[in-house]
Amino acid sequence: MSDATAIPQHEVIIIGAGPAALTAAIYTTREDIETLLFERGVVGGLAAVTDKIDNYPGFPDGVAGLTLADDLRKQAERFGAVIELGEVTAIHDEGALKRLETTSGDMHAKAVLIATGSDYKKIGAPGEAEYYARGVHYCATCDGAFYRDKRLVVIGGGNSAVQEAIFLTRFATHIDLLVRSTIKASEVLQQELQKFVDEGKVTVHLATTTDEIVGKEKFVTSVKATKDGVPTEFTVDGVFVFVGLEPNSQFLKPTPVRLDEIGFVITDQHLQTTMSGVFAVGDIRSGATMQIASAAGEGATGALKLREYLEGHLHPTQN
Amino acid sequence: MVKNITIFTTNTCGYCQMVKKYLGAKGMTYEEVNLDEHPHRQAEALQLSGALTVPVTVVTKHDESQEVIVGYNLARLAPAVA
User: Fold this and answer.
1) Regarding beta strands A238-241 and A278-280, do their DSSP bridges make them parallel or antiparallel, or are they unpaired?
2) Is the dihedral of CA A74, A76, A78, A80 positive or negative?
3) What is the ipTM of this complex?
4) What is the pLDDT of residues A119-136, one digit of tens each?
5) pTM score, whole prediction
6) Using the beta-carbon criterion (under 8 Å), do A133 and B25 form an inter-chain contact?
7) Domain-embedded: residue A316
8) If you count Cβ atoms within 10 Å of the first and of the last residue's Cβ in chain B, which end, N or C, has fewer?
9) How far is the alpha carbon of B70 from chain A, nearest alpha carbon, in Å?
């Protein structure tokens, strides 16, 4: 047990500051519920490192991820949300209060919202970790500029892979897109990609698995892959990986907050986790659709459920 | 004691914004080298960091020693500029 009087206390602590978290903060602070957010990475989450977002409503011409993230932050801060740059490392249930271990010391909250989102998954191929940031990358908007007039491989076939491959065409002379099965990106993105395929700037390789990332003198030189069962090798200067998402839930593993088999947080119909007073929204939630618009919607719902809980109208979770 | 800080950035890099936001919140000034505007300085960033990525933050102390921080890494950035 901790000494409750010595620990700073907040009404609500939101863990994360992506679109779900910032939307929740807009709702809680507008209800005059004092709210502190903790962000260990980028305010705006993965949205902030996405070149362009075309499927978030209200932006007929799309919106730069960085712009959307910054506008969400400003909107939340306008109503009094405070964003602390730091990390929550553990949550303890102390009944009416939750104690959070953070990089700024222990803190109490009457209610907690987990919105830590996801990060890009690794492929686990030999060479991937060894050449990280020296030819292997997970952020096109950060590192693409280093590949002017170079050849690239992009791995993945979902929305992120196709969107970022299109972004990287502004730098690279040619991109080989390695897709394990078939392209799962939206029809609109596929049509946009086709323009670059027609120009000869992008070559799509379906049914292609990545076997090894090969380097020489500290930097990547090629990618070994298997295409239709036949070994092949792509000579490249860099590799960008977008093969799905993995949950940022490591810090929850020793807690009573139940996770699914992959590590996403399980919630009930009120978005409450198995720890009473602790809710989860956005990409971290089991069953989430991994869409920014959905995350924002869940953030709003989560905030309203937090308010019900704080007012004593939401019963402890039964799941 | 910090003598000066240089950050290598690009226009679209969210992590670069975070480094600038952190230093701004601490009231610290810095020189920004935008590699989209000055691509000829990429080699300098690479030589300092050994990595093809931004942000690269170079903290020079009064004794002329340098600390180079690759990425947005608060665990290293915070003590380097303290």
Assistant:
1) unpaired
2) negative
3) 0.84
4) 889 999 999 999 999 999
5) 0.81
6) no
7) no
8) N
9) 9
